[in-house]
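User: Hi! I'm working on a homework problem where we have to compare a predicted structure to a textbook description. Could you give me the structure for the chain below?
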Amino acid sequence: MTERLADITARMGGMQQLGAVVNAMRGIAAARAAQARLQLSAVDRYAAIIAAAIARALALAPAAATPAAGRTLPKAALVLFCAEQGFAGAFSQRVLDAVGNDLATGTLFLVGSRGAVIAAERGVRPGWTIAMPAHAPGLPKLADRIATALYAHIAAGGIGRLDAVFSHIRPGQGVKIERRRLFPLDLAAFPQDVAAGAPMVNLPPAALLDELTADYVHALLCNAALHSFAAESEARMEAMAAAHTQVKRQLSRLRAMQRQVRQEEITAEIIELAAGEAASQPG
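Assistant: Happy to help. Predicted structure tokens:
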């Protein structure tokens, strides 16, 4: 009986240590999600400024906003933002499921080490992979590296159309998968500000639009990476919250077992003492 009580006590100690680890992981995930959300507003403002500059620059070269006729269907590519670490539920699976058959027909750029493992388990072979940074301030540099790889493929004629697929936390709706066109940009979608007029520039209009488009794509990549980073952290928070609830249930069950075993030990000792006392009495 004493050995059983010691075993239960040891299991309780291990469960309490596990609970501390779960709480720590939950706190880290919450801090990372909050950090990413703060940076999102700055990136969105930056993207809006670049979009406004593109709209004004189009006044110098309005023909650039008109899509050319008779183009053949360009080679497609996808940038998938998956999970970097485990304990995030079906985060990566949802992203891979969202693109479906496109995984087999297009070039795949995959972000996230854990997502790369899950893709390999499905028989999906990305053309290019990279790890997601551990902290949100590293995401702009990640966007630089993704853009460098993308432009190398574009210059080589490897891709002509590019979409980003990432998870997005929507208030009251949970995690949603969003697919966003990155290249080529639909310049006709940028409303020209006729009242503002054409800007004063010292670059040829085509070169100016190319530079602005590159900056805008970089901003969109940063936006997608931040959304994915925050969504993965939120998913990990949910997973750790569920694990914390389970730890509490296990501890409650073990405490009940501990009380029962102690009561059984006390009862056995009382019976033994009473039997001994009875045996010592003269007949």
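For your comparison, note the following. Residues 97 and 217 are 25 Å apart (CA to CA). The radius of gyration is 30 Å. Good luck with the assignment!
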